[in-house]
Amino acid sequence: xxxxxxxxxxLFFGLIILISAVFIVKQQTAAIIERFGKFTSxxxxxxxxxxxxxxxxxxxxxxxxxxxxxIVETKTKDDVFVRLKISxxxxxxxxxxxxxxxxxxxxxxxxxxxVFDVVRSEVPKMKLDDVFERKDDIAIAVxxxxxxxxxxxxxxxxxxxxxxxxxxxxxxxxxxxxxASEREKVAAEYxxxxxxxxxxxxARAEAESKRLQGQGIADQRREIAxxxxxxxxxxxxxxxxxxxxxxxxxxTQHYDTLQSVGENTNSNLILMPNSPQAGSDMLNNMIASxxxxxxIGEEMKKRNDxxxxxxxxxxxxxxxxxxxxxxxFTDLDDDLxxx
Length: 339
Description:
Elements: H1 3-21, E1 22-25, E2 29-35, E3 38-43, E4 46-49, E5 55-62, E6 66-75, E7 81-92, H2 97-102, H3 107-122, H4 128-133, H5 135-150, E8 155-167, H6 169-237, H7 242-263, H8 278-317, H9 325-338
Antiparallel strand pairs: 1-4, 2-3, 2-5, 6-7, 7-8
């Protein structure tokens, strides 16, 4: 075989060996180098060299933060089955790449097992409402347990989160009904309070209206009385006495009322004595009543004066008792008997 033919073959195999000796490690990745199946070194990001055929890249380890979502179904203290979604954020410690690569065959399954163990030991101690309120406590418990267990394997637990709590559908419907009932109860209380405020305000407004109405009626009657007084005084000045003036005013008001009823076409039907003699009869009756009342008043005044004179004479003629109270009562009985 000629040297010109062997030289290209040697160069070709040399190039292949040179290429196989160079490899690239990406950022945030570590490469595990083994020599004849035994760990040799850990290579970081960049261009790296190894002995061809003798050394090989056994694997690569991701150094970035990773997230594992674990769904756990368990039972609460009040016998409600609930599904929890636990998100675990973890990272391989850069200085412990060897442990992370060689000590665990499947780190994600290992983390999942620890999450199941912690959740199923913590949640059964709580009621369903407490699970929603204390989900951060569950996350802290999971992180604490994972840190204690996974640190020896070269993993650092960055954060654990309880991202979802999903009870049974019937339980959610019942919880929604309870919440709706509570809100309806509060709404009913507010509506009742608003109705009470309306009633109180209406009562106060009515009371104020009645007070103002009464005050207006009182003012109206006061002004009517003043007007009547002035009318009687004017009539007295022209020689008409008080009785005749009062009768004249009543008759005048009677005909004014009839006139106002006739002017208002929308007024209700009112039946009143309105014959030509009605006013005259009313006036005569009023005058007769005034005369009779005056006579009765004069007779009572005379009798009272006579009774007073007789009582004084009797009191002077009879001696007084020691106390004086018995005679006074006797005189009072006699006066009452005469009346």
